[in-house]
Amino acid sequence: MTNEQRERITTMRQCGIGYIKIAQELGLSENTVKSYCRRQKSVVTTKEETTRCAECGKLIDISKRSNRRFCSDTCRMKWWNKHPKADMPYTAFCVCCGKELHMRRKGERKYCSHHCYIVARYKDGGGND
Predict the structure, then answer these.
(1) pLDDT tens across 64-122, in order?
(2) Residues 71 and 94 in one domain
(3) Taking the model in full, what pTM does it have?
(4) How many distinct structural domains can be found in the chain?
(5) Which of 28, 94, 111, 125 allows an S-S link to 32, with CB 3.0 to 4.6 Å?
(6) Any idea what the Cα angle at residue 40 is, between residues 37 and 41, rounded to 5°?
């Protein structure tokens, strides 16, 4: 790869052009362009490779792990403390008291608390004497 090609890759990436188009225009392979951009810290990544932290809004590089939502564990814990029932698509009712339960997976819980579990377990006098 020539110095001119390197400069053009950097310029094109900063304009938001993708790897495939850059590779086609410069006559290089897509993997060559990707590896060059990965090695160069100064090359700005496109929107597909960055996202913002759900808590603080800081940019996160997701090129290595695409499912990151938070920049740190601290931000993750803050966000979940503010949104305790987020991403809980399933609802059910406590077997003992009838209180509504929110779950991430279907059938994850039967009781709303340990107290309800104990009451339901020993309701019929099932305890050992």
Answers:
(1) 666 788 888 999 899 888 887 777 788 899 999 999 988 888 888 899 999 999 999 88
(2) no
(3) 0.39
(4) 3
(5) 28
(6) 115
